[in-house]
């Protein structure tokens, strides 16, 4: 298809001159005798280049240019202002109005053809980028749909694994070794179940489809319950969980289920990377005169987190060694970051003294 050019000029003779100068270029030319008619034409088709006369009655070329460029559907169309004005101020006014280039009357055929070719190259580059963006959007949409399908398809098999493991645990004839293996199967199943649930929530959050079911929640009670549920796991590593929680209740409007999973992830990570015979301090305080109502911190006595890992630790699928022999897969922390930010809060990590790390979230 030949390039389409819209000529906006109140003088039909000027159109005839331009048509003659572009005769051998095989362009498809359209004509509008005023700004109003030009805007009406643009509702029906989009040219590749617009030649716009600046000096027109009723609506001058600069105003027409501003109207075109202010419309998102037309703003990408290159505009060449055709003007009898030759002062630098007038030319600057055309460019400030949105014109991409200008040409002075009397119009030279050689210059006109060169200007149009230049604008067509710009338009072609825009069209190419637009196609690439659309292709990328299609690929991302397909990936998102496949991720959703995969997560949904995994949930039932994982639930079956957990259920079968729970049944096996009830068998009296199992040896101690077999019982230990079954326990590992069930624990791994629960971790996979938690992972798939987090993936599903993150996918919904990224696509804008996640709805937060907010309610008034006693944040201290929620944190205390989380600590209580993890005491057995911590005791297996001789880790003490120290709760430093105010007696004064604080109610926060949030999604209790999602926020509980954030606390689960943070405390599970803290126990995982804390050394034996250490302690984890679980703190809550209420900042005064700040943007956030509550600050919650988990302070461990581990080996700490390097500067390089701090920069990526909240990224999806970020991998780094926090403790020798244990690799950190950053999906859990990425989930925490997304949920906290969805609540209008923030989460960050800093060094504990004399050693260890402090994960803090504020809402």
CATH homolog superfamily of the largest domain = Histidine kinase-like ATPase, C-terminal domain
Taking the sheet with the most strands, its summary is:
5 strands, parallel
Secondary structural class: alpha/beta
Radius of gyration: 33 Å
Output the CATH class name of the largest domain.
Alpha Beta
Question: How does CATH name the architecture of the largest domain?
Answer: 2-Layer Sandwich
Overall mean pLDDT: 85
N-to-C SSE string, H for helix and E for strand: EHEHEHEHEHHEHEEHEEHEEHEE
- N- and C-termini, Cα separation: 57 Å
Shape descriptor: elongated
Strand order of the largest sheet: 2-1-3-4-5
What report would you give on this structure?
The protein is α/β, with parallel strands linked by helices and 363 residues long. It folds into 3 domains: 104 residues, Response regulator (Rossmann fold), CATH 3.40.50.2300; 72 residues, Orthogonal Bundle (Helix Hairpins); 148 residues, 2-Layer Sandwich (Heat Shock Protein 90). It is 51% helix and 19% strand. The protein contains 10 helices and 14 strands. The strands form 4 sheets. The protein has a 5-stranded parallel beta sheet with strand order 2-1-3-4-5, sandwiched between helices. It is elongated and about 100 Å long. The two termini are 57 Å apart.
Summarize the structure in short.
With 363 residues, this protein is of the alpha/beta class. The chain is 51% helix and 19% strand. The protein folds into 3 domains: 104 residues, Rossmann fold; 72 residues, Signal transduction histidine kinase, dimerisation/phosphotransfer (DHp) domain (Helix Hairpins, Orthogonal Bundle), CATH 1.10.287.130; 148 residues, 2-Layer Sandwich (Heat Shock Protein 90).
């Amino acid at each position: 298809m030949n390039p389409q050019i819209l000529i906006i000029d109140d003088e039909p003779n000027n159109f005839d001159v331009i048509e003659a100068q572009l005769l051998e270029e095989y362009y498809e030319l359209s004509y509008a005798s005023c700004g109003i008619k030009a805007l009406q034409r643009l509702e029906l088709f989009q040219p590749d280049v617009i030649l716009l006369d600046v000096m027109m009655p009723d609506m001058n070329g600069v105003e027409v240019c501003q109207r075109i460029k202010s419309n998102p559907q037309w703003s990408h169309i290159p505009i060449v202002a055709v003007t009898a004005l030759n002062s630098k101020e007038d030319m600057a006014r055309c460019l400030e109005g949105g014109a991409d280039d200008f040409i002075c009357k009397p119009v030279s055929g050689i210059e006109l053809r060169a200007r149009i070719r230049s604008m067509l190259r710009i338009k072609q580059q825009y069209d190419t980028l637009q196609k690439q963006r659309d292709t990328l959007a299609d690929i991302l949409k397909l990936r998102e749909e496949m991720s959703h399908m995969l997560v949904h398809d995994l949930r039932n098999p994982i639930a079956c694994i957990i259920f079968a493991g729970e049944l096996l645990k009830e068998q009296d004839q199992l040896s101690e070794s077999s019982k230990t293996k079954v326990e590992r199967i069930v624990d791994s199943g629960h971790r996979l179940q938690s992972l798939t649930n987090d993936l599903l929530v993150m996918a919904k959050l990224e696509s804008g489809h996640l709805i937060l079911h907010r309610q008034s929640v006693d944040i201290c009670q929620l944190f205390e319950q989380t600590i209580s549920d993890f005491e057995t796991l911590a005791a297996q590593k001789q880790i003490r969980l120290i709760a430093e929680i105010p007696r004064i209740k604080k109610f926060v409007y949030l999604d209790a289920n999602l926020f509980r999973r954030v606390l689960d992830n943070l405390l599970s990570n803290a126990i995982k990377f804390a050394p034996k015979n250490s302690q984890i301090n679980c703190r809550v305080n209420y900042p005064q005169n700040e943007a956030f109502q509550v600050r919650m911190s988990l302070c461990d006595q581990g080996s700490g987190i390097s500067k390089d890992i701090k920069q990526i630790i909240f990224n999806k699928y970020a991998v780094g060694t926090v403790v020798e022999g244990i690799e950190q897969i950053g999906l859990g922390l990425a989930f925490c970051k997304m949920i906290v930010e969805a609540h209008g809060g923030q989460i960050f990590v800093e060094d504990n003294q004399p050693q260890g790390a402090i994960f803090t979230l504020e809402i």
